[in-house]
């Protein structure tokens, strides 16, 4: 097969979507090197990063880059023209991974990764521009995609509830997995945690934004301290997102500003250290397509408290403590109980390691390659373009 694959979000500063694209591309190239892989460092015009690396980080006998664009305008002109398919060499498959979706392919099978539509649940979780851009891409996929890859059963069900016209048999779940493969790697302590004891901090990983729910987590942490909880710092590991400009002020109002460590964006090495050495991983997200930090923390043996919402129970299974993310009081008491019960903490660590073993990139890559083959063997979807 000649596979065109969107890697536009896999550069520096990547988040969940970029990690999915990077890891599954790497896995596919590793297990099926006989295929030709055309990797697209820019894809569409909604998401654009001119800093995408020029050097190819993917090795294989049949791996090459597709067109690279240095401005959003040139990317838009290329990806929206009527003969884009011919300009790409008419690959068998083009796989979109960044919400944007082309609509003009006549023979190439279009595969689209669907992450989530949290922006349809609560408009306050993101900006108007991002909400419109994401929804436009998802809507175009419902019109033009031949197959949809959902990253969880919850995401699959949500997509079909919004777009019931899309053929259910052409939508499959391919789970993301952890990008960490070296289980002997101790990681690297972030400089912001110098002096903090190993096993002596609560950890939250994720972009600081409304959907990730750090405001309620901060309130729960303040309540935990008020209840007499061990005064371990709360570490927030992630870059600042949208609509959280007053978050530091909010921490000060709670009286915990000096007890919260905000690391900013951390490297993979630093993230490994954080997962390995936290007292527990706290992930109170309000809505997730998958919830990668839950899986990655469990892979490193982190006891986990997380949400009952959307896809997260699929990932956490019975290994984590599952709570309503809108109930800071319940979170505070769960933290207090866990801080006082080493036996439960040890049991949660063992359960986390076992649960994380259910997600493996080779299996996900094999599933995806099988879907590509099925797409090629099936008629192209008949839609109005």
TrEMBL record:
Using the record for this protein, list the coiled-coil segments as residue ranges, or answer none: none
Sorted alphabetically, which Gene3D superfamilies does this protein's record hold?
A: Glycogen Phosphorylase B
Top-level taxonomic group: Bacteria
Checking Pfam families in the record gives: Glycos_transf_1
Keyword annotations for this protein, in alphabetical order, are:
Transferase
This chain belongs to the protein called Glycosyltransferase family 4 protein
Which organism's genome codes for this protein? Paraburkholderia edwinii
* Highest classification ranks of the organism: Bacteria, Pseudomonadati, Pseudomonadota, Betaproteobacteria, Burkholderiales
**Which SUPFAM superfamilies does this chain map to?**
UDP-Glycosyltransferase/glycogen phosphorylase
Residues in Glycosyl transferase family domain copies: 202-350
């Amino acid at each position: 097969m000649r596979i065109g694959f969107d890697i536009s979000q896999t550069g520096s500063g990547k988040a969940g979507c970029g990690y999915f694209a990077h890891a599954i591309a790497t896995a596919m190239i590793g297990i099926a090197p006989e295929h030709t892989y055309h990797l697209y460092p820019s894809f569409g015009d909604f998401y654009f990063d001119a800093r995408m690396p020029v050097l190819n980080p993917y090795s294989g006998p049949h791996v090459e880059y597709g067109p690279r664009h240095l401005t959003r305008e040139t990317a838009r002109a290329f990806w929206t023209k009527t003969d884009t398919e011919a300009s790409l060499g008419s690959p068998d498959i083009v796989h979109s991974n960044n919400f944007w979706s082309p609509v003009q392919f006549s023979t190439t099978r279009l595969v689209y990764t669907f992450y989530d539509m949290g922006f349809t649940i609560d408009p306050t979780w993101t900006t108007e521009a991002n909400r419109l851009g994401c929804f436009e891409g998802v809507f175009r996929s419902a019109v033009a995609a031949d197959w949809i890859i959902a990253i969880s059963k919850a995401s699959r069900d949500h997509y079909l509830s919004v777009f019931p016209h899309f053929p259910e048999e052409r939508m499959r779940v391919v789970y993301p997995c952890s990008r960490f493969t070296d289980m002997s790697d101790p990681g690297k302590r972030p400089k912001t945690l110098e002096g903090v004891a190993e096993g002596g901090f609560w950890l939250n990983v994720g972009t600081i934004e409304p959907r990730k729910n750090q405001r309620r987590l901060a309130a729960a942490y303040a309540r935990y301290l008020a209840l007499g909880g061990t005064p371990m710092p709360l570490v927030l590991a992630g870059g600042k997102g949208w609509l959280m400009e007053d978050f530091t002020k909010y921490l000060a109002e709670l009286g915990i500003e000096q007890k919260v460590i905000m690391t900013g964006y951390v490297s993979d090495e630093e993230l490994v250290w954080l997962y390995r050495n936290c007292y527990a991983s706290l992930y109170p997200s309000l809505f997730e397509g998958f919830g990668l930090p839950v899986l990655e923390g469990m892979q490193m043996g982190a006891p986990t408290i997380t949400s009952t919402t959307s896809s997260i129970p699929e990932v956490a299974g019975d290994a984590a403590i599952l709570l309503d993310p809108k109930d800071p009081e319940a979170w505070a008491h769960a933290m207090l109980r866990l801080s006082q019960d080493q036996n439960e903490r040890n049991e949660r660590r063992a359960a986390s390691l076992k649960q994380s073993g259910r997600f493996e990139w080779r299996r996900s890559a094999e599933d995806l390659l099988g879907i590509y083959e099925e797409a090629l063997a099936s008629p192209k979807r008949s839609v109005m373009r």
